[in-house]
Write a structure and sequence with these properties.
Helix content: under 10%
Radius of gyration: 17 Å
Strand order of the largest sheet: 4-3-7-8
Structural class: mainly beta
Oligomer: single chain
Order of helices and strands: EEEEEEEE
Distance between the termini: 29 Å
């Protein structure tokens, strides 16, 4: 099962970007967000905390640099963006990607 497999890091550099905007264009606000990376067995493989500052600008862009992509085997993985709303984390976006590992034999 996947739970028995070790985590390996694929040497691929990714930047996950998100764009935030005010609910009310005339009213400044701020919030907390986090990006989670989830494996096929629902195991959390990484978390990145973010501060969202919309006090002076109506839009705010975040960038999370991921230097290596951790994997535990074949399956569906998810980048999940959450925002803290009244002391509760709420999912606001989910980006899936599939990892397929095939064994090859060269004769």
């Amino acid at each position: 099962s996947i739970k028995d497999k070790k985590i390996i890091a694929i040497p691929i550099e990714l930047t996950i970007t998100s764009l935030w905007y005010r609910n009310d264009p005339k009213k400044g606000e701020s919030s907390k967000a986090r990006l989670k990376y989830i494996g096929p067995d629902s195991c959390e493989l990484g978390t990145y905390d973010l501060d969202i500052n919309l006090e002076t600008n109506s839009r705010f862009r975040t960038r999370v640099l991921i230097p290596n992509l951790p994997i535990k085997g074949s399956g569906w993985y998810f980048f999940i963006m959450e925002e803290k709303n009244k002391n509760k984390w709420v999912e606001v976006a989910r980006v899936p990607h599939e990892v397929v590992i095939e064994k090859t034999c060269h004769k």
